[in-house]
Specification:
Layout lengths: L18 H20 L3 H10 L4 H7 L4 H21 L8 H17 L2 H12 L4 H18 L7 H24 L1 H23 L5 H15 L4
Helix pairs in contact: 1-2, 1-6, 4-5, 4-7, 5-7, 5-8, 5-9, 7-8, 8-9
Length: about 230
Amino acid sequence: MTPRATKATPGAKAQPENWADKTEQALLEAFLPHAAAQGWSLAAMTAAGAEIGLSSGDIGLLCPNGPRDMAALYGRRCDARALAALQAMNPAPAKIREKIAAGVSARIEAAMADETAARRWAGFLALPTNAALGLQLTWESADVLWRWAGDVATDENHYSKRAILGGILIPALAIRLADGKDAAEAFVAARIENVMQFEKWKAGIKPSEHFDRIARTLSRMRYGTSA
């Protein structure tokens, strides 16, 4: 599922959200309590839609991929809420490791606002058929956090940073759900220390020709350039 672009009407002020965006969010809000009881399922979507006056046809138009689209909406809403919480921090963390720790904590706590639904969501994305979506959403979350932390890398570091942080986000959420906040934060602190050690090591070496070629290929895919 990809976010819809807001269309501006000539001579009118642009609206921050169109009807579909608002209705998707209303459906998600109604869906989460049903997902907590019925699982991340089409049945939960149908029940939620009935609450807000949507037919099964309406739901199919809004979310043609069914529960997968709801999973994407939920993940991106958690990203948005985490980013809002981070931007409101005063003062904001100064060191990069502190920023990443704060970012991971904010992202996890955004999901924990709907803990039972978050458990269902994590279980849904853990299914083999949904693994690709889970990886995509994790990458998006890592990207949001790195951008908030001030990362502007466009070379191979852009990809390695997000891959590494994604590898922290997934188990950190699982630990938060299973063992609580303190255990999750201890895990994150230890992993971030490993990340910083890796960055120091990487800074001292020259990327191999093979690795550099891969990075250039990924950059072309990302920016559509021939560089």
